[in-house]
From TrEMBL:
InterPro entries the record matches: Homeodomain-like_sf, HTH-type_TetR-like_transc_reg, HTH_TetR
Source organism of this protein record: Rhodococcus wratislaviensis
Metal-binding listed as a keyword: no
UniProt xrefs under Gene3D superfamilies: Tetracycline Repressor, domain 2 (1.10.357.10)
Keywords, in A-Z order: DNA-binding
Protein name from the UniProt record: Transcriptional regulator, TetR family
HTH tetR-type domain boundaries: 20-80
Species lineage: Bacteria, Bacillati, Actinomycetota, Actinomycetes, Mycobacteriales
DNA-binding region extent: 43-62
GO MF term list: DNA-binding transcription factor activity; transcription cis-regulatory region binding
Amino acid sequence: MTSPLLPQIGVDTPERGDAARNRRLLLDAAALLVAERGVDAVTMDAVACRAGVGKGTVFRRFGSRSGLMHALLDHTERELQQSFMFGPPPLGPGADPIDRLIAFGHARLAIVEVQGEVLRAAENSLEFRFAAPARAVSVSHVVSLLRAAGVQGDHELLACSLLAPLEATLVLHELRDLGMSVERLGDAWEDLIRRVTRC
């Protein structure tokens, strides 16, 4: 496949090579801080220190902590999108659509496990939760896979319903408060997909 079937999120003019490298360096540093110490540890100072640059570089690049967090989410979503649009099967093209749906859920759960607090913060923003470009791309992707699998019905509404159990707020509650494992949630996701796609 040489061109995207879905609208890509956050597509803008290409950056210079050094600017793109610096951006990725800063976002990788922020992602590591989230994974190691939680979302509250992601300050402009901490990211600058972790990336080995001055704090002014972080502010020039993202403007504020809020801008950094939104860029981090966009960074994560772009990587997932690249994987399901162009990556290897079963997440990427070439696999059975049901297997791709199952792989998509597992990939989303893995992201929530690492960056759940960042995602939950975004979900709690009413302007972001349902109108975010990343969510629209995920809905479109699930709709296309449901159609390819021969599932009948209102594909868009079904896609929205299927994505609900993958929302960070619910997943974090299940992991932290209910003591469920990511493996259990992944198995439940696969069971749900197989039931929904049984024609």
